[in-house]
From TrEMBL:
Organism: Prorocentrum cordatum
Keyword entries, A-Z: Ion transport, Membrane, Transmembrane, Transmembrane helix, Transport
Subcellular location: Membrane
Descriptive protein name: Bestrophin homolog
Biased amino acid composition, Basic and acidic residues: 368-383
Bilayer-crossing regions: 55-71, 218-238, 250-271
Amino acid sequence: MIAYDEGNWAIAFIFQLHGSVIPKALVWAVPAALMSGLLRLLIDDETVAGFEDMSSNGSSLSFVLGFLIVFRTQKAYDRWWSAGTALIEVRADWFNAYSALVAFGNQDPALREKLESWIHEVARYFSLLYGCALSQCSASSEMKLEFIDFSGVDTPHLRQLLATCDKCELVLQWIQRCIVEAAECELIKIAPPILTRVYNQLGGGFVKLARARQIKAFPIPFILAQMITSLMIIHWVSSSVVCAMSLRSVFTAMLVCFLGQMCFWGVHYIAVEMEGPYGGEANDLCLEDLQSDMNRSLLAITHPLARKTPSFEHDYEKPLATISLDLHLDFERMCAEFDESPKRTLHDSRFGDSSTRRSSGAVSKVAAEVRWRGSETAKHLKEAATWNGHADGGEPSGRDPKSCTCVPPTEPEPASDPSAGSGTTETVRQRAASSPPSRIRGTYSM
């Protein structure tokens, strides 16, 4: 498929010959114009006067031929558009299935290595699956596609892949079996009804692939293509004679014949080019680019940072706001500013201890809820958060920053309340507003 730039006036690209049908149309239009001019020179004016009504009689052929050419061109564009849409939808379904499988991975540290190996294995199968699908659609015998390397896959299975009649069906079976085995050994930890969505997307992609393959399997019917081509040849001959017999000027006869043949043959070749969108020619779909795009997406999902959510530090003093930026130019500069900001400190507590995560979320929620009650309440709550190890700035007095353990206070501690470990939000708010916080790390249940 040709990527072109129309320019400011949308006319500069008309001089591009790569992929153009103009040279093919000229092959028919120029001889027809020369033939018409030659006949006009050989025929005298008296003979031409007797055939002035010939142009009106020949218009019926032009009408029928024009209708058939427009009909064929419309169907050819529908085939071209449907082919591209089907392949994009296949890619979307299969990539979403792989993305879901990566998201469903069990985060147990004991299974980390097995999960990493499984993710890389399935990525190779999805790349192979989409590549085999594109190969089945392609009409070119010399197409080379890019795959994620097959290192680690045993040789007998690869030989079986070469021997099978439908490679997509075999690779799809491998993927489905990998999912079943991963669910059995708990590499995938998700509810079965949600995991069913992956199978639905795999099957849906295969159905759309069948729709893309039928465009190659069912070309334009032979009888329609034969009739249109035959009428094109008849019109090419008759148009030269009609223009020479009905027009008095040699130049006018050549011009009218040239323009008519240029239009008919140009539109005809447009339809022929678009009828086979998988042929590997200039105006056909670029299957190599589709495969490369799929591989880039698969490799991006396998990155470790793509398999966990970003850490987030909420600023309660800063309201939500929108910003306008260029993701290619301004985003890198914005990230650099965040890195250099002394006030920004990101704590990746999402992947730490479970009690730490619950305590951090609880204290943050309580802080937001009681902030409006006054400065004294916020001060008490901030002190409580400081002793729980989640304050925004500084280390609390009496706390060892290296060992992250609380040093016993000098004054006697108040009696412990059973609700401190699992109390409600209202209980925590009342304690923070009425008395100094206890210096015992706790977890608040929201």
